[in-house]
Amino acid sequence: MRYEIKSIPIWPFTKVSFFYNLVIGFIIGLFYAMIAGLLATVMAELSLIEADGFEYDSLPIGFLMVLMPFLCAFFCAAFNTVAGIVLIFVYNLIARLVGGLELNLSAVEEETPPPSKPAVKPARTEYGPPPPPPPPQSVRPRPPMEPPPTSAAADEDAGPPPNNNRNDESNEPL
Predict the structure, then answer these.
(1) Does any domain span residue 96?
(2) Could you tell me the CA-to-CA distances from 153 to 16, 114, 157 in Å, in that order?
(3) Element (H, E) at 104
(4) Which of 8, 10, 6 is nearest to 18 (CA)?
(5) Which residues pair with 4 in a beta bridge?
(6) Which of 8, 14, 80, 97 makes an SS bond possible with 21, Cβ 3.0 to 4.6 Å?
């Protein structure tokens, strides 16, 4: 596949470039403030800064540490974004005259290793709707309970009553 960059829109580039340069400028400002604060402290200890009534101890190093990242971020964002806009304008003019930047792109296939044999076979490999629930089991009604017998005939069917007297060794009915 061949592609050609015929022009670069300026406004989207400006938004992205300003934000990017603002962040990078703040990070650079942090490092610059730390290094400048360290050097100023060392120079004050070696008494290299004192001259004509100027004492370094009166300058707040914290002010330098706080102000430097913001100043560096603002100036980095402003100057680098303006420089980028000028370069984009020049590129767009040159691209109109001689053509844009051509890129040859090709699809790259990633080589994947063969799948390893799973230790446990998965239960389901497809993710569809769950299977329907099993049908409800038929519930048979219990037969009605028969009331216990209360007549004399029921006593005859039951047989002799058990002998609960352990001292009596005879098994004769009373």
Answers:
(1) yes
(2) 106, 85, 6
(3) strand 101-104
(4) 10
(5) 102
(6) 80
The verdict on residue 34 lying in a domain is yes
Give the lowest-confidence range in 9-13, 51-55, 135-139, 154-158.
51-55
Taking alpha carbons only, the member of 12, 15, 10, 7 closest to residue 91 is: 7
Residue 71: inside a domain = yes
Give the domain range for residue 14. Answer: 2-104
Total structural domains within the chain = 1
How do strand 2-5 and strand 101-104 relate by DSSP bridges?
A: antiparallel
User: If you average pLDDT over residues 51-62, what whole number do you get?
Assistant: 56
- Cβ(119)–Cβ(19) under 8 Å? no
Residue 113's pLDDT band, with cuts at 50, 70 and 90, is: confident
Per-residue pLDDT tens over the stretch 118-172: 666 656 556 677 778 888 887 777 777 777 667 655 555 555 656 555 555 555 5
Comparing CA positions, the residue from 87, 72, 89 lying closest to residue 22 is 72
Does residue 60 sit within a domain? Answer: yes
Q: What is the pTM of this model?
A: 0.50
Tokens coding 104: 């040859």
